[in-house]
Amino acid sequence: MSSSSSSVPITAAGGRGSIAPTPQNTPLTTAPLTSALSKPTVPTIGEGEEDDDAGVPPDTPPGNAGVGGGLAGLGSKGHNAILGLVQQRLQGLMGQSSGYIEGLPSGTKKRVLALKGVQSDYEGLQLQYKKECLELEKKYTALAEPLYSRRFEIISGKSLPTAEELEKGHKQEVKDKEEFSDSDEEDEEEGEEGADPAEKEASSFLPSEPIIDGEPGAGDGIPQFWLTTLRNHSGISELITERDEKALEHLTNVRYEHLSGEKMGFKLLFEFSENPFFTNGVLEKTYFYQDELGYEGDFIFDRAAGVTIDWKADQDLTKEIEIKKQRNKHTNKTRLVRKARTVPSFFNFFTPPEPPTEEQLENMELDEEELEELDAKLELDYQIGEDIKEKIIPRAIDYFSGKALRYEMDDEDYSDDEDEDDDDDDDVEIDRDEDDDDEEEEEAPRRGGGGRRPPGGAGGKRNKAGAGGEPGDCKQQ
């Protein structure tokens, strides 16, 4: 039996076994890697082994490789390195032609071409469906405007809550408490000695009686409502610095509008009261969709456009001024030099990254690392904008109160069994590697702590519009 399976013969079309194992129809995750690696070509690397392996051909199995498998002598690190190289090789083959279709009879080729034409008609129908869904979304966004206006009046203190609103809010709070009531910890607290369960239960709800004159906070709204709301979104919270908080305390409303005309997309509007940082009353951020759908049938973000913030003197939160002394070599006099450098800030959100142009890509002006970094920035920017539109604005009170965080935490508690099995296997390999390394070096200090999960979590790229899976998405059944 040959030790290499780098090529597979393709029989004549129409004959036995005419369905060739091509990169397109061969599952990447189930490729029999180990059978093709029975004789590894990468020698093991370890202390004291370099001299022993001198003069040995590279395709000779290690001396300690048993009959049970050619990778046994490599150890866990070598095994993982080999699999990683093969995985990269297979990924490079994905989507490339194997010559199978080219070898079909001319009549069969024409049928394949006709299927592509039928598929193009379906994609046109799918685009029409998505556009109609977008129009339906616009309709219900308009219907929700009075509710958003009413929310603004209550938050700003311009209007008192009605008895009906308070009653509905109390019913919703009771429903939420029943849904999230856990439990053992709450049962233990309620069963504490000397505590009246009925009194404790009543005190756990917000007061539902109408506001009366002279009551504390009767004439105020809800201070720092939008700052707290944004802070309770895991991704946006990472963007907000302590300096930003002072400016975001003046944020009075967040809303969005659909674009009108031929161009599809939406605009986010952040409304501010007068503040000591900038003169803009509204900061805007516009997201544009591409004219065509993505492969999965969703709108794809094309680009984003921000707004110029008119910062007041020495109040630019996206810049930090460094003052340095410079001495003249000839006169020995000194002068102070002010130099501004860019620093992290939530307000950088209004200066979005620019996608690379076709000319930049053709001239290869950006290397692979720069493209990957830019792609990650664009992906994060699109995701934050989509979350503000689909989550923050329609469910602002849930983020302010923390209710939305309970749902996000519940989502994190669940994962695919297959992923958990893979994680367990990785833990075993890591434990083995750590055992091997304990004698050579001390364990490196842990960095990063627990922290918040990255915005978007698992699931790969999210540059498609509507990826959040909110009820507002128009899904085809």
Automatic annotation (TrEMBL):
Biased composition (Gly residues): 447-471
Organism of derivation: Serendipita vermifera MAFF 305830
Any single GO CC term annotated in Swiss-Prot or TrEMBL for this entry: nucleus
Composition bias, Low complexity: 26-38
Compositional bias segments (type: Basic and acidic residues): 165-180
Protein name: Nucleosome assembly protein
Gene3D superfamilies found in the cross-reference section: 1.20.5.1500, Nucleosome assembly protein (3.30.1120.90)
UniProt-listed InterPro entries: NAP-like_sf (IPR037231), NAP_family (IPR002164)
